[in-house]
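User: I'm new to structure prediction. If I give you an amino acid sequence, what do you actually give back? Let's try with this one:
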Amino acid sequence: MRIIPGSRERPAYKKQDPEDKSPGRKEKAMIKVMGFQRKKGDFISDDNRRVEYDNIELYVFTDEAQDVTGYFCDTLKLPFKEESFLGVNNVSELINREIALEYKVFGLKVPKLIAVRALEQKAKA
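Assistant: Good question. You get back a string of structure tokens that encode the predicted 3D arrangement of the chain. For your 125 residues, that looks like this:
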């Protein structure tokens, strides 16, 4: 199951098998980047350590949210580093592009979003 980082109250994204041809399955799920915001700074943790962060929030438009009929707008948060953006040279190239989400499991915790992969752009007719 795909998890939306940062909130337990938001609907989770469905994990879809691209090879699944079962009846009732949508032809293609879509997650499209509409904008982004970089968030960088530091804070003092509960155990008095200084924690620095450098993240990016992607504002996305999707038809992949469970329990939502139609489209859903959401925010995805991931680390701001070169290996977080696959298939593009910089994050601004993700605007108006469809993406796939890349997750990694750390220890026994839930999967964490670590990267987004830009999908092939459709040729305009």
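You can read the tokens as a compact description of the fold. Here is one thing that stands out. Residues 16 and 106 are 22 Å apart (CA to CA).
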